[in-house]
Write a structure and sequence with these properties.
The chain is an alpha/beta fold and 229 residues long. The chain has 7 helices and 9 strands, in the order ααβββαββαββαββαα. It has a 5-stranded mixed sheet.
């Protein structure tokens, strides 16, 4: 598990697994971290806040590929995902994640399967595909150092995944929670945007790493793979 996570680029000291298990629904480790957000790289920043967008460059997982042809459907809401929030005494925060989704899932599935392609309808996919993956962001949360009295920006992302068969039948539906953090001391005067961007990028890469680990163990997916391989 550690080797896959390190390969993807998640933080070496990530504690997202513990936070996932101990929090109210897997996204937040403390009730006081009550704010919603996601982010990374590229910035417009205001006093006490930040406006950031996740980068569009992601690594391809170095794992053994499954001999399958997999499609992926990204809905318009996911591709345009932006979160805006005003935090008391901390200004306005605007986070854009949508532009990162296509390159993120392209590289993820390219690394995991023999072939991948984007599809327009998961329930009417091209005949050559074995299955279609449909990801969606259900919720995002974050904490900043002034909230937690720590040195860290932290970001939690909760995805929901669906897997459809090659003939458009829903086979599986499961959640995935990812976590990333970054130390504000590494970013000096630009800690708001750069620290948050680093935490959010780490969360995105953690989602990729965790998906590669979890996918074959999801019970309905495991049954589907047993029948296909």
């Amino acid at each position: 598990m550690a080797s896959v996570t390190a390969m993807i680029g998640a933080p070496a000291n990530s504690t997202f697994a513990g936070s996932r298990e101990s929090s109210r629904y897997g996204l937040r480790s403390k009730a006081g971290r009550a704010a919603l957000l996601i982010a990374a790289v590229g910035v417009l920043t205001g006093c006490g806040g930040a406006s950031v967008a996740v980068p569009t460059s992601f690594p391809i997982p170095l794992v053994e590929k499954l001999p399958l042809k997999m499609g992926v459907y990204l809905n318009p809401e996911l591709l345009a995902y932006v979160h805006n929030e005003k935090l008391e005494s901390s200004g306005n925060w605007s986070i854009s994640l949508g532009d990162a989704q296509q390159p993120m899932f392209k590289n993820l599935l390219t690394g995991m399967f023999d072939q991948m392609e984007f599809v327009a309808d998961p329930q009417s996919p091209p005949a050559n595909l074995d299955g279609v993956l449909v990801p969606n962001i259900e919720e995002v949360q974050f904490s900043i150092p002034s909230q937690t009295r720590s040195d860290y920006y932290e970001v939690w992302i909760r995805y929901q995944f669906k897997l459809y068969s090659g003939d458009g039948q829903l086979l599986a539906d499961w959640p995935l929670t990812a976590y990333g953090k970054a130390n504000e001391r590494n970013y000096g005067m630009q800690s708001n945007q750069q620290g948050l961007q680093a935490a959010a990028l780490a969360a995105c890469r953690d989602a990729m790493a965790f998906f590669t680990i979890q996918f074959q163990g999801v019970p309905p997916v495991k049954d589907w793979l047993a029948a296909k391989l």
